[in-house]
Amino acid sequence: MARRPFAESAKGRPYLIHRGHQPWWRAPFSETDWTDTESKRATAYYQSKTLAERAAWAFAEQNDLPLAVINPGLILGPLMGNDCGTSVGLIKHLMSGRFTRLPRYGCAIADVRDVALAHVRAMIQPEAAGHRFMVGGGVFWMKDLARVLAQSFPDYASQLPSAELPNWVVRILTHRCRRSDDRS
User: Which is the catalytic residue, given 11, 40, 49, 92?
Assistant: First the structure.
């Protein structure tokens, strides 16, 4: 039984964080850093996760609850069933040959077992109350992820992309996707 409420917030943090005047790509980041929801880089996903976490903190403070929050990176690891979810779905798409090139994108990766352990500790350790915990390693680029997958699963190596999309192509595609979203 949980001894305190806990929450899991945005995956990929510290992806869109600004520290004062420091740009998002500067590291290291800590649990004191937050995603800048006003940034042009802040998608609706990141905005919603950040705003939801801030609301959870406000609710906990108003109701004197000892909240703890887990902020994992991209969660990967052994599956418990056939549903692969969003994070593992990315790996599935990469290995299927669906992508021929990769965006120059990176994020922290967290092992699902480490995230589970963080949740348990957040619930039962008294000193966890009132804190945020980042779970994940250093930034792992998509190109590096594809390379590790090719080495780990040689039967799929020929289907994995090895080249990156130029940033200007990604910006054009992103702009078109946003315009398309605005029309629907």
Answer: 49
